C-alpha cells in the first residue's frame, strides 16, 4: 500500500476510534472538508482550518468505517466505504460513503465526502 493510502487508512481508523489527536496529525493546518449527506444541516457547507474541521467531525460515540476499495492517482485517494454508526435512539445507521482525499506534503489538505444511507444493508 502506498504512503498516501496508508495515511488515509490511518485517518479513518483514528476517526472511527474518536482519536482526535491522531486525526489532527493527518491534516494540514489549512485543511478543508465538505460533506454531502441527506438530512445533515451542514451538508455541502465547506469547513476550513484544522481546529474547525476537527470540531465539525466530532462524534458522540465510536463507529465503524470499512473501506471496500481505495484508488489513488497522484496526490488524490478515493475511498469507497461502508459506515456503521449507532443512533441516539437505538439502532444503527448504515451508510455508503465515497470520500475524496487530496494530499499535500504527506498530509490531508482537502476532504470531500458523499454519504447516503443504505436502507438495505447486507
Secondary-structure element string: HHEEHEEEE
CATH top level?
A: Alpha Beta
Compute the gyration radius: what is it?
14 Å
Structural category: alpha+beta
How would you describe what is shown here?
By secondary structure, the protein is of the alpha+beta class. It has one domain: Nuclear Transport Factor 2, Chain: A. Helix content is 23%, strand content 48%. It has 3 helices and 6 strands, in the order ααββαββββ. It has helices at 3-16, 20-25, 50-57, and strands at 27-37, 47-48, 64-73, 76-86, 92-104, 107-117. Strands 2-1-6-5-4-3 form a 6-stranded mixed beta sheet. β3 and β4 (76-86) form a beta hairpin. The longest helix has 14 residues, at 3-16. It is globular. The termini are far apart.
Helix-strand layout with pairing:
Elements: H1 3-16, H2 20-25, E1 27-37, E2 47-48, H3 50-57, E3 64-73, E4 76-86, E5 92-104, E6 107-117
Structural descriptors:
122 residues; 6 strands; globular; 23% helix; six-stranded mixed beta sheet; 3 helices; Nuclear Transport Factor 2, Chain: A; alpha+beta; single chain
